[in-house]
Automatic annotation (TrEMBL):
InterPro entries: Cell_wall_hydrolase_SleB, LysM, LysM_dom_sf, SleB_dom1. SUPFAM superfamilies: LysM domain. It comes from the Bacteria. Residues 28-71, 74-117 form the LysM domain. The keyword Methyltransferase does not apply. This is Peptidoglycan-binding protein. Gene3D superfamilies: 6.20.240.60, Cell wall hydrolase SleB, domain 1, LysM domain. The lineage of its organism: Bacteria, Bacillati, Bacillota, Clostridia, Lachnospirales.
Length: 275
């Protein structure tokens, strides 16, 4: 083999190695928030707790706010005209998980900003891509009760109607974002281990003899949902959360000192959102 041939092979090897490395590299930096735990972070990025600990050389399950962790996820550089919804839709993830991964709770994006795409990993080969598409299809079939591919939780037609009726009863006359926020609180409870795991279970939940939502007790939940409430319910189910992760809401005229003592995450119209 002549010298020119050897040099060519060496150069090609280096190029291939570089391409492989850039394709399979999926590390991103995530900053821990006050409500985080290793389990929540691993769930958000769809990796195991053990892998997350190994990636960051952690010897315990303890994390602290402000701590920077390496996570397995692709990053995306924001371009002019981008929105969280467009980016989330492009990569097949929910707006809510995109918000959580980047701690963004408004809709202001600056071109050039890098976003972490939770659960999105680079595709190495055609086979991997095909497998990913097959898995996605199987997941959609398994969640046949879900009415939207962008939904952050599975739900049925009856549960969509139930959520819209709750929003109608609780937030009619309030700003649209407050209505979405009410839906967001229900979604946040479904996603939390502290509450039932379905929309129906959360809305009809009775704890210690107390109804969690007064319209269930007084019967207002049985009134038909308005069109705008149905729209708000769908937006919340697709990941929009003006409540900023709240699990409680109440009217600002409430005299309940227990509710007022909770950390307030957002105030929209007369609605107060807390956790």
């Amino acid at each position: 083999m002549n010298k020119n041939m050897k040099a060519t092979i060496l150069i090609m090897s280096l190029i291939i190695s570089t391409l492989l490395f850039s394709t399979t590299s999926s590390a991103a930096k995530y900053k821990v928030t006050e409500t985080d735990s290793l389990y929540k972070i691993s769930t958000l990025f769809k990796i195991s707790v053990s892998k997350l600990k190994a990636m960051n050389h952690l010897t315990s399950d303890e994390v602290y706010p402000g701590q920077t962790l390496t996570v397995s996820a692709k990053t995306y550089t924001v371009k002019a005209g981008d929105t969280l919804y467009k980016i989330a839709k492009r990569y097949g993830i929910s707006v809510n998980t995109l918000r959580k991964a980047n701690n963004i709770w408004n809709d202001n994006l600056v071109a050039g900003k890098k976003l972490i795409l939770p659960g999105v990993k680079p595709q190495n080969t055609t086979q991997t891509t095909t497998k990913s598409k097959t898995t996605s299809t199987n997941t959609s079939i398994a969640k046949e009760t879900s009415l939207s591919s962008n939904a952050v939780i599975s739900y049925s037609k009856e549960e969509l109607d139930l959520l819209a009726r709750l929003i109608t009863a609780e937030a009619s006359g309030q700003p649209y974002q407050a209505m979405v926020g009410v839906g967001g609180v229900v979604v946040n409870r479904v996603q939390s281990k502290e509450w039932p795991s379905t929309i129906k279970g959360v809305i009809n939940h009775v704890s210690g003899g107390y109804y969690q939502f007064s319209p269930v007790k007084n019967g207002y939940i049985n009134h038909p949902a308005t069109d705008i409430a149905i729209k708000a319910a769908k937006e919340a189910l697709n990941g929009s959360d003006p409540s900023k992760g709240a699990t409680f809401y109440f009217d600002d005229s409430s005299k309940n000192t227990w509710l007022w003592s909770k950390p307030i995450f957002a105030r929209i119209g007369a609605m107060v959102f807390a956790k």
